[in-house]
Amino acid sequence: MDAVTDAAASSDVWLVVGLGNPGPSYAGHRHNIGYLVTDELASRMGSPFRSHKAARADVVEGRLSPGGPRVVLARGRGYMNESGGPVKALASFYKVAPDHVVAIHDELDIAFGTLRIKLGGGDNGHNGLKSMRSSLGTGDFYRVRAGIGRPPGRQDVADFVLSNYSTVERKELPFQVSDAADAVESLITDGLEKTQQRFNS
Q: Which domain of life does the protein's organism represent (predicted)?
């Protein structure tokens, strides 16, 4: 496939990846905000996740708006630090270039309840992003970064991200999840600049 047709193929499909860890024991953890947001997006599409034949991942295929581009929602069935393999397999299967990949993930350096949307950048110690960068061979994909804040006192960072939201946070969490889902829709429909103006509070 030449570069022109490859670009044309990729521009029609977006791959939206929710980063997290599989299974009920991880479901409520701060590290799993990506899964929660893809659940919300799948609900908006009106479709359940299904196992994908070519990757260790569950996917939903559809459109987030009538006449909008095709979107593949995905979440890996392996652990966070293995996210890159399934993402690369899905990107290859659907012929999606990195600039049409969106990763939704937790972010320690942003206050809980806030979002930052950007293209490219480092992994900032985030194992899911690190794995994606390694497998895709580039960090030039979009990130919807959902703030979880820093751990209180001397709590270990790993313990903090792999623990449940506080009682107060759980009341606010649905709003953050909904906003992050809105940001993904905006990114795909309106582009980065408008989305940043709207959501980078």
A: Bacteria
Query: How many CA atoms lie less than 13 Å away from 75 in the CB half-sphere?
Result: 24
Which CATH number characterizes residue 75's domain? 3.40.50.1470
Q: What separation in angstroms does the CA of 93 have from each of 28, 61, 79? A: 30, 13, 21
Given the residues 31, 52, 100, 105, the one annotated as active site = 31
- 126 part of the active site: no
Cβ 199 vs Cβ 186: under 8 Å? yes
- Please, what's the largest Cα pairwise distance for the chain? 54
Tens digits of residue pLDDT in 115-163: 999 999 999 899 999 999 999 999 999 999 999 999 988 999 999 999 9
Domain span at 51: 3-199
Per the annotation, binding residues for tRNA are 26, 79, 81, 127
Query: To the nearest whole percent, how much of the chain has pLDDT over 90?
Result: 89
pLDDT classification of 9: cutoffs 50, 70, 90: very low
CA-CA distance, 136 to 9, in Å (whole number)? 18
**pTM over cut 0.90:** yes
